[in-house]
């Protein structure tokens, strides 16, 4: 299974970045995995929402080829952990990379949402975009431990 | 508003503990808030599930008086962030403390679940119990910033 994580900008919270690195290391022991932190829109006032999303979409698109895209989206589908395991098993068996894409603090541009065959919501609650990254990584790690029959320290 | 967080044992992941402290500090600037880390069952083999839950339940119960209890429970109710804000507003206005209770890695004893007027599920997905604590704190902080009309850095 090839797994890619794609999001604009480096995670700024130091603690969340450490957790991110920890989960990436653990995932990397169970599957081919990489993280690409793409260009982040900087210095554009927040009221220019569309411009920020456009700059970040262009950065993300450079790293998408024939990937199977799963985008984090608050109106996406919620899956229970077991359902998420089956989803990874079903869609991660080909050579095509599974790419988890997450937006910056304004989310993802509309056309990236439309391009994603799977839209995943982690919760009915809204998480900060950096916390959402860590929750996503934990879920992917948890699912892989189940798939590989490993015990996951709760 | 008086908010209490109650769970057995100290959060072991250093990064999650730092995030926990950070959110507690931020929440404490918006409401009276404290965390009580109660007795954790130690040295009992995991197969003795009921004994572990019983030891931890007794520790938690010592800190419950007339509190309004909201327990984290995977079969509980999911709330969108806006709904959670309204919930806090409605239930946090009296002198009665709002107590968020979370279990250890095996969850909470049945009788604590039955005693809780509100059972809250953070997600359809299962989170590690330490990550769930941080997600809960982030949501409480987020809700308070909305109630207090502050801007929350996404």
Fold and architecture overview:
2 copies of one chain form a homodimer. The first copy, chain A, is of the alpha/beta class and 154 residues long. Chain A has one domain (2-147): 3-Layer(aba) Sandwich (Alpha/beta knot), CATH 3.40.1280. Chain A has 5 helices and 5 strands. Chain A has helices spanning 14-28, 49-61, 81-91, 110-115, 129-147, and strands at residues 2-8, 32-38, 68-78, 98-101, 118-121. A 5-stranded parallel beta sheet of chain A has the order 2-1-4-3-5. In chain A, β3, α3 and β4 form a beta-alpha-beta unit. The longest helix of chain A is centred in the C-terminal third of the chain and has 19 residues, at 129-147. The first copy, chain A, is globular.
- CATH fold-level name of chain A: Alpha/beta knot
Low-confidence stretches of chain A: none
How many structural domains of chain A? 1
Main sheet summary of chain A: 5 strands, parallel
Q: What would CATH call the homologous superfamily of chain A?
A: SPOUT methyltransferase, trefoil knot domain
Which key terms come to mind for this protein?
homodimer, 154 residues, alpha/beta, Alpha/beta knot
Q: What is shown here, in short?
A:
The structure is a homodimer of 154-residue chains. Chain A has 154 residues and is α/β, with parallel strands linked by helices. Chain A has helices spanning 14-28, 49-61, 81-91, 110-115, 129-147, and strands spanning 2-8, 32-38, 68-78, 98-101, 118-121.
Question: How are the secondary structure elements laid out?
Answer:
Two copies of one chain form a homodimer.
Chain A: E1 2-8, H1 14-28, E2 32-38, H2 49-61, E3 68-78, H3 81-91, E4 98-101, H4 110-115, E5 118-121, H5 129-147
């Amino acid at each position: 299974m090839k797994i890619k994580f794609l999001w604009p900008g480096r995670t700024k919270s130091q603690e969340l970045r450490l957790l991110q690195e920890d989960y990436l290391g653990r995932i990397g022991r169970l599957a081919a995995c990489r993280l690409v932190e793409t260009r982040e829109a900087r210095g554009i006032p927040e009221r220019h929402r569309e411009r920020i999303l456009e700059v970040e979409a262009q950065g993300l698109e450079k790293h998408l080829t024939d990937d199977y895209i799963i985008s984090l989206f608050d109106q996406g589908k919620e899956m229970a952990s077991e359902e998420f395991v089956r989803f990874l098993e079903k869609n991660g068996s080909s050579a095509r990379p599974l790419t988890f894409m997450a937006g910056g603090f304004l989310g993802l541009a509309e056309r990236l949402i439309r391009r994603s065959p799977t839209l995943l919501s982690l919760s009915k609650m809204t998480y900060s975009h950096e916390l959402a990254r860590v929750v996503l990584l934990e879920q992917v790690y948890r699912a892989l431990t189940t798939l590989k029959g490993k015990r996951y320290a709760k």
